[in-house]
Write a structure and sequence with these properties.
Elements: H1 3-17, E1 33-38, H2 45-55, E2 62-67, H3 71-79, E3 85-89, H4 90-98, E4 103-108, E5 111-112, E6 115-119, E7 132-135, H5 141-152, E8 161-164, H6 170-175, E9 181-183, H7 188-195, E10 198-203, H8 204-207, E11 214-219, H9 220-225, H10 227-246, H11 249-258, H12 263-272, E12 273-274, H13 282-294, H14 304-307, H15 311-315
Helix pairs in contact: 1-11, 2-10, 2-11, 7-12
Length: 317
């Protein structure tokens, strides 16, 4: 069906939810543009929805989504001020904060949706001993989930060989026996399941309830200079999260515009993920910090009060 139909479908959903965003009258000319970086993954769906909502509304800002091929490239752009914010791994943003980059997490990207996928030959965690296991980045919650899974089985982290790999490469690497398993953002976990090349050994919530993964992070100088604009942006982001949580056909259609993904894969991926309640709470953050210290990934994680700014999401309608 035509895209205009889906935008109408999305608007109807918003009315039903009673959602709204700040807006001003007039054309888009002269409106400030907010540049937000992302990787084409299911964990960034609220941003895709928000961008499409702005096409159908008269908001007081424009949103430019900037796609990056890797977390390294994205964080380089964020750290150097080439973008205003990003949907990124909260752990790499914490590392940047530790190194002196002024960043603030203003919301989560999602909840759950990180499956530990293994080849069909692997039936138990102990079967992974001596095998290669792919993660997207050593400073990632995915790496922590691997650590926790092994720890629960009485195994050492060194019992497997963790290797950093591009998320898009992981399903093919599993299918060709180059790795025994992987854990990464969606939709790449669901891809191996749908293709029949692997199965889920654990979902993230089985290992760590209320785990923290991706967050919406903004530069602190941008926040300081644009308080009202940031509030409007976060209002729209929370609205978009509510719409994303419906996981209806409109959400599928818009997500497919930003990701090259099979419909069946996307459907399974969305079933694993939650987009409501995107507030980053202190207990989850402290537990994440404890993991980073235990794994010797970050020596001095930023304090919750220094890194997390919930003032905008708490005011969001």
């Amino acid at each position: 069906m035509k895209k205009s139909f889906w935008l109408l479908y999305l608007s109807i959903t918003l009315v039903v939810l009673g959602a709204c965003t700040n807006s001003t009258n007039g054309s888009s000319e002269g409106k400030p543009t907010i540049k937000i970086g992302y990787l084409p993954i299911t964990h960034a769906v609220p941003l895709y929805i928000q961008a499409e909502m702005l096409n159908d509304r008269d908001a007081n800002y424009q949103l430019e989504l900037v796609k990056f091929p890797s977390w390294v490239d994205l964080m380089d752009a964020l750290n150097t001020g080439r973008i205003d914010g990003a949907s990124t791994l909260v752990t790499v943003a914490m590392k940047s904060k530790e190194l002196g980059i002024d960043l603030k997490a203003v919301a989560l990207g999602h909840r759950d949706g990180n499956a530990l996928v293994v080849s069909n030959d692997i039936q138990h965690v102990s079967d992974l001993k001596g095998e290669k296991f792919a993660i997207p980045h050593k400073f990632s919650v995915h790496n922590i989930l691997l650590f926790e899974m092994l720890k629960r089985e009485g195994m050492e982290y060194e019992d497997v060989t963790p290797i950093e790999m591009s998320p898009a490469e992981m399903p093919a690497a599993l299918a060709t026996d180059r790795i025994a398993g992987y854990v990464v953002a969606e939709p790449f976990g669901a891809q191996s399941i749908i293709m029949g090349n692997g199965h889920v050994l654990h979902q993230s919530e089985e290992l760590w309830e209320d785990s923290v993964d991706c967050a919406l992070v903004l530069r602190e100088d941008f926040i300081g200079e644009n308080k009202e604009l940031v509030q409007s942006f976060v209002d729209g982001y929370v609205d978009a999260g509510r719409v994303a949580e419906t996981k209806n056909e409109g959400v599928h259609h818009i997500s497919s515009d930003y990701m090259e993904v099979d419909e069946e894969v996307l459907d399974l991926s969305l079933k694993w993920i939650s987009y409501d309640n995107l507030r980053l709470n202190k207990d989850a953050y402290v537990k994440l910090s404890d993991y980073l210290i235990e794994m010797e990934l970050i020596g001095n994680p930023p304090a919750y009060e220094d890194f997390v700014d919930n003032s905008f999401i708490e005011k969001a309608r």
